[in-house]
């Protein structure tokens, strides 16, 4: 699989699990037209890298303006909002439980 191969959805986002164990999940996300703001709360720690595109997120009252190559760590159970994203943006997200990853 080539991570850059994938159809851009007309609306919302497409989440594709690339690898999953009890402790970790690696997900490719392709963004289409997303109704924003969109809230997320994950039960595991999350590290994301924006591989292509631009996005604006809010976490703990701070705004993050991401461009290709930027990364962000989001602690478990932390409310965060996708404020805007360019259609065709490509993300790689790693969700993990630090207690199980050693």
UniProtKB/TrEMBL annotation:
Q: Name one Pfam family in it.
A: Cupin_2
Query: Sorted alphabetically, which InterPro entries does this protein's record hold?
Result: Cupin_2, RmlC-like_jellyroll, RmlC_Cupin_sf
Q: Which SUPFAM superfamilies match?
A: RmlC-like cupins
Segment forming the signal sequence: none
- The residue ranges of the Cupin type-2 domain are 27-82
The lineage's top-level taxon is Bacteria
Q: List each coiled-coil range.
A: none
Protein name as it appears in the record: Cupin 2 domain-containing protein
Q: From what organism does this protein derive? A: Nitratiruptor tergarcus DSM 16512
Classification of source organism: Bacteria, Pseudomonadati, Campylobacterota, Epsilonproteobacteria, Nautiliales
């Amino acid at each position: 699989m080539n991570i850059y191969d994938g159809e851009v959805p007309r609306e919302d986002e497409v989440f594709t699990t690339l690898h999953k164990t009890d402790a970790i999940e690696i997900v490719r996300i392709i963004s289409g037209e997303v109704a924003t703001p969109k809230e997320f709360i994950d039960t595991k720690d999350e590290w994301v890298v924006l591989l292509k595109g631009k996005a604006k997120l809010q976490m703990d009252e701070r705004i993050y303006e991401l461009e290709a190559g930027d990364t962000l760590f989001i602690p478990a159970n932390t409310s965060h909002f996708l404020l805007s994203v360019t259609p065709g943006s490509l993300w790689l997200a790693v969700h993990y439980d630090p207690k199980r990853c050693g």
